[in-house]
Amino acid sequence: MKRSQRDRDAYPRVYGDVQIRVDQLTPLGRPTLTAYLFKAMPHFRDELPRLYEVNLDGMATLAFVIEGVELVDGCFYQQAWHCKEPEHKIQVPWTLCPRSTLDELI
After folding, report:
1. Residue 94 φ/ψ, nearest 5 degrees
2. 106 pLDDT tier (thresholds 50, 70, 90)
3. CA distance 35 to 51
């Protein structure tokens, strides 16, 4: 069942580095494209369950949606993640970055 926009906005946002890769050992019993939030330390808990059988559902200029199935308490549920840059992100202008030989190509 799809939730309303108001219901989705009521949940707290999760911030992290989304990574997508092929995992060889998955609950599906075969290699599967998997999305997860990268953890800086292995002992940190997962903020979200991993998504298996990941597909890119939609893409815009500053956001994208990936969908797949997640395993929660032994049951698979269809799930989608709406990914975008956080509002509080600090961007450094490229002119302040160290120069390289590739800058001549710009």
Report:
1. -65, -20
2. low
3. 5
